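batch job 7 of whatever, protein = DHA2 family efflux MFS transporter permease subunit
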Amino acid sequence: MTVMAQSLKELPGAMSYRWWALIALALAQFLVVLDASIVNIALPAIGSELHLGTNMLGWVITAYVLPFGGLLLLGGRLSDRFGHRRLFIAGVGGFTVASAAAGVSISGEWLLVARAVQGTSAALLAPAALALLTKLFADPKDRAKALGIWGAVAGIGSAAGVLLGGVLTSSLGWSSVFFVNVPVGVLIMAAVPFLISKDAPSERTGLDMTGAAAVTAAITALVAALAGTERVGWSSPQTLILAGAAVILLSLFIFLEKRVANPLMPLSIFRNRWVTGGNLAMFLIGGATTALFFALSVYMQQVLRYDAMKAGLTQLPMAGALVAIAGVVPAIVKAFGTRRPLAASLILLAAGLIWLSFAPINAAFTIHLLGPSLLIGVGLGGAFVSGTEAAVHGVDDDEAGLASGLVNTSQQIGGAIGIAVLTALSSARTESLLEQGVSQPQALTSGFAWVFLGAAALAILGASVVLTVIPALKKQ
């Protein structure tokens, strides 16, 4: 039992303190996930006011994703080293200030710097938040419930980005997509010191800064290579150089981790098959869901001609299904262990994606989209909850931040690779059909169908990995 959990249990109404603390942690995670997508709808308005071209607008997204994905492992290890609550509060503070700065941007350069600080702060708070959750809820039954809420919030954040982005941009202007973070961040920072006791930093001395620099540079190079493929192509010198640098730096990181006294990421953590299987699953889930939300949003607006508000509202059934199943999954995990619910959730996700791939160019929402949306929501809810549970199962307290940073990193890199590969396939399919004289709506629809089928393939692969890697008959 951790010192923090003991101190909470000594307080009157300790259970309520823990669950209120979970709300604060989940809200912070919601902001982190939301900010990866809420800005998309606002990009045209941002470009018009700040005089940004198409290439620079892409960097409004990339400036957030690069430091977020690249610094997650370091952020997790820093929280282990200096205290999870301390790093969480610092991350929320930085994220809040950077959000306010982004909202008052007077130039593109100002906005990009603010977005980079947002991403860096998110890399601090996200792993610290999940590590705090695993410490607060040491009992497997309570932890499963807490992770159910956590998974639901993460999924809702992904789905809500389009809806909130459309509502806020159309009613209050593009700055509001950043300002919305400020009051929530202030509330979280005010509440956490009263809800969560200070946790003791790790007894390990020293910090593997060389390894941190190598892995951060490797992940940043990889994400930058993938983020740029849509603009410059897969065979461009930029893509090849960045990808080659990522491979070299990752190899250097592994070499260093085997030889330093206090490695940033002890490779022994992968001896835990739940951690290995959970991270592989979250990598593939990230790839499938990032591509799904991008393609579905564009399909609804470019093919079905939904406006931003309507496109966002159509995400609500999926989000509702996700929340409903996330509340049930902890009981299922308790009864059957992590392995089977996670594999089943991925199969349901794949089934919903395959169903969605049959949507025509004149799809009616209730006939063609509602059914697959609900099935996808059920699959995502189960996969997020059980996948996160697997990825942090059996991890010692002094490596909780590392495990949390690792699962977030897996999801972010999976998302970057998934959207880059699947959108490239979609574009190739669409261009091929256009060259054959097929109408643009039909060509786009067919291209998006390839994205949905590719995402389904990732989900099926994830189910196979789970059944192969995660041990059977282990109940939580």
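notes: The longest helix spans residues 400-435.
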